[in-house]
Amino acid sequence: MLDVSSRSAPSQGIDVLAFVRRLDWLLVGAVAALVAYGLWAVAGITRYDVEGDGSYYVIRQAIAVGLGAVALLVALAVDPDRYRRAQRVIFGSTIVLMVLVFLLAQETRGSKRWIDIGPFQFQPSEFGKLLFVLALAGFLADRARRLDAGVVLQAVGLALIPILLVFKQPDLGTSLVYSAALAACLFVAGARWTHLLALAATAVTVIVSVVWLLPNVGVEVLEPYQKERLTGFANPDRDPGGTTYNVTQSITAVGSGGLDGRGVAGATQTRLDYLPEHATDFVFASLAEQRGFFGAALLLGLYLLVVWRGLRIITVARDAYGAIVAGGIVLAFLFQIFVNVGMTMGIAPVTGIPLPFVTVGGSSMVANLAAIGVLLSIHARGNLGRRRD
Amino acid sequence: MAKGRPSDRFLPPDPRVTEPYRFTPQLALRVGMLGAVALAVFAVLFLRLWALQVLSGDKYLNAAQENQVRTVRIEAPRGTILDRNGNVLVSNVPGTAVRIWKSDLPSEGRYAMFKRLSKVLRVPLPRLTRALEDSKDDPLSPITIKTAVHEDQVMYLTERVAEFPGVQIVGTYLRDYEHRALAAQILGYVGEISPQELAARKRDGYRGGDKLGKSGVERAFDVYLRGTPGAAQVRVDSVGRPQSEYETKEYPTYGSSVRLTIDVGLQQAAEQALAFGIRTARDHESYNANGGAIVALDPRDGAILALASNPTYKPSVYVGRADPKKLEPLVDDKVAKERNYPGINRALAGQYPPGSVFKPVTALAAISDGLLSPYQSIQCTPTAYYGEDRFQFNNWNPYTNQPMTLPTALAQSCDTYFYEVGNRYYERGEIERAYWTRMQDWARKFGFGRISGLDIGGETAGLVPTPAWRRKTYEGIDRAWNPGDLIQLAIGQKDVTVSPLQMARFYALLANGGKLVTPYLVSAVEQPGNDGSPPITKRTFPPARPEPVDVDAAGLSVIRDGLYAATHDAYGTSSGVFGSFPVPVAGKTGTAEKVVDLPGYGPGHLEDQSWWCGWGPFDVSTYGDRGPIVVCAVIENGGHGGTAAAPAALKVFERWFGVKAGIQGLVASD
């Protein structure tokens, strides 16, 4: 049983081969397909965005994919348990990053989300998603055997620090992703149903207060635009020229794609800029317009594959920590997909959440690939022999 | 999962030993639930995608295609306005306009863009924002913020289209006034349709951003002048940048020309005559003379040959690079008052006490009512006393004291003669109340106290005072109808007010033998002929048939003689002006006291309004190739009728008949 330890170094060469065999190749394939498909889609979507340089965005995106691949490999090489042991450092640096955003970031359209590093813009809250899950999972895994109300409350309290920091940027969407990840971590860690229900009830109360009760007594927590967006999806026809303009144009773009799409040149909603932010938040609508139902459904299918493989990794995790991390990552991922895609089709509120692997944006791409690296790492070090316990 | 202790059948658990992690059934259940949630999420997304793209794909495809097509109106060139002989009064010149499409304005940085735009176009920012504010209920129509844009400004904007989203430069037509200020108040001006006007005219095919005649002929005949706008389509991107050439779907139709009854030459003469009359008045110590009006019309059918109003303005101040300073007299109440309201067409809307020019009304009424016999002699005294308290009424001429028949009384404009007539109406009315309003009834029949229905509108009705009016208007003791009311009315003073047009209409009745004409300014609407071919008349506006008024024919004839005597007898009030004129002209002077509000004078300050009304040739025949003409002139604060208004009116006759009067004689006038 000596060679059970993952830290045994002697026969590296053979271990690498065994490690490669232990990879979840289906997940690798699905992510590779997603990234490739995303690049192809972005190439079409941004063809007319920079005059004279139709491949401006896709080249930048490809560079991000390169960086992301490196991050994935690094994450793959690291034993997840190291994150658990370094949870305090990770948590601390997450907070530091968030605070740095406030100190260094330039205001873009009313919010501070990006830090400029040379020619690149770095969006800490994207990396924060992964770091947040890694740290929180560590806190919960260490206390998984006595997960009483006190621990749950402590976990929620800790999680609220980065959640509120992101909310104040203001980046409502990302703070909701963090909250979804928190819920997933508590759920997988085994928090009691009563505690979970109590938390859910609290969350509902908070949302109702923020959107409805507090404004009625004169306290505005959300910016008016945020509230409009959150509630506007319920009736997009109310003000098609104003607040819900984006959603109206987005639905039109999606619908106009039809079964097989209008092609890159014919997709006027994207090409003539009727669809705002079509390379970022509304990238799915653009894809649906250009590639039609087949193209959009293919993307959703690939996402489903990734989610399925991710959920499966919870079951093969070597320890509670791995399971909780996997749960947090997959749920955050699922939440982003639903809110982003749902938003473009008018069934979810408008929040600035990127679509994983497709939205143009380096931070998001690198962070997501790193997260996949962590998932693969958990899988490779998991109990593959004893599947379905 | 970690709830219960693992089975410890053999040994008590050792706290130093960590139990190995196990994938428990509880966790499996939870993962299963997460899987179910994931499946549900994807099911929802797939279904929605299917619904949008496959089930309603065509609907959204249409919406997307319509998104980028914008239909724009192609402005139709506005019709020209011609005088009676086809001389062009108003036409168009091509120009450039800058418009804003509100739906294309950026949601952020609007203010900064407006600031730049206001600088580039030299349009004050408040005016720009107000224009936008004013039409906030109509987001789909463009707002023209400036016309007659300079070439440099056009270049600047076209080079920076991307920096000015929602701003469009279009070709347009600008009104061009060939004779500058001539006939300004008749022609009127054109401006962009206001939201209120639009609301009232939407059904007639008007849209936001259209041009609309705002006054005068331009307003009254806008339907004919405006033509039919065309339509063009252009593909635009979301910031309104055209992505294709404009494709004309419907060509615009030229507006029709409107032909007026005005004679350009006579109109010029009338306007010059007014200025001359004002100058003359000032030369005769009426230093406050500052305005007036002249009406010249054909007594046979009411066709208006000239309609002058002074002070005036250049309608071009409304076109293009509108200079707010030059517009002030027209739009700013305070400045307008200082300049004596150049925007008002005094010939139609001016309200003056008529004074002695009203005397023929009194005479004609009294003869027709049997209260006056034309050849009855009445003593023309310097003063007369009427009423229970023997109130004193003065004659304008304190040196006369002789019996007069009607022609002499008219020729010399004897006030006391007409006081007597007025008093007869009062005394008769004390027995039979109807007589208190008989004279007024006749005045109404002659067109006073009501509008004539002039085709370009803008008339005011004036006032013919009656006991009922007095009761309604005043309180207490002032409500009583006194002898003075009718005695003063008999010489056209006190409460009665008339417009020059009404007076001209009445003198036309005297000239044509008792028929009331309806004045008109527009004779036809025409489609301009191509390449010199004659215009095609699309619609004519024949004059309304003159209405016979049942006046005493013999009495009318005596009155006409009296008015001829007034211009030709030795003691006629305007014989000195018209006596030597080759064309036989008959007419009456008037000097009406009016309370005016002039700077430097206290309230209740009285000024004489100088009147002259008359016609020639006397028998309403033609003279040379020229038909008969009625001329009515008023010089505000111009003093005596014979000194200012009569010489001004003479100028109009001279121009019309093409002959000059001889040496002017001495004027003795009221």
Notes on the protein architecture:
The complex is a heterodimer of chains A (389) and B (670). Chain A has 389 residues and is mostly helical. Chain A has one domain. Chain A has 16 helices and 2 strands. In chain A, a hairpin with a 2-residue loop joins strand 1 and strand 2 (120-122). In chain A, helix 3 (56-77) runs parallel beside helix 16. By secondary structure, chain B is α+β, with helices and mostly antiparallel strands. Chain B folds into 3 domains: 73-259, Alpha-Beta Complex (Penicillin-binding protein 2a (Domain 2)); 264-316 and 550-657, Beta-Lactamase; 355-524, 3-Layer(aba) Sandwich (Beta-lactamase), CATH 3.40.710.10. Chain B is built from 23 helices and 23 strands. In chain B, strand 18 (522-527) and strand 19 form a beta hairpin. Chain B starts with 24 loop residues before the first helix and ends in a 13-residue tail after the last helix. The model of chain B has no long low-confidence stretch (mean pLDDT 89). The interface between A and B is large, with 61 and 47 residues.
List its salient traits.
heterodimer; A: 389 residues; mainly alpha; two-stranded antiparallel ribbon; 68% helix; globular; disordered N terminus; B: 670 residues; alpha+beta; Penicillin-binding protein 2a (Domain 2); Beta-Lactamase; Beta-lactamase; 3 domains; five-stranded antiparallel beta sheet; 23 helices; 36% helix
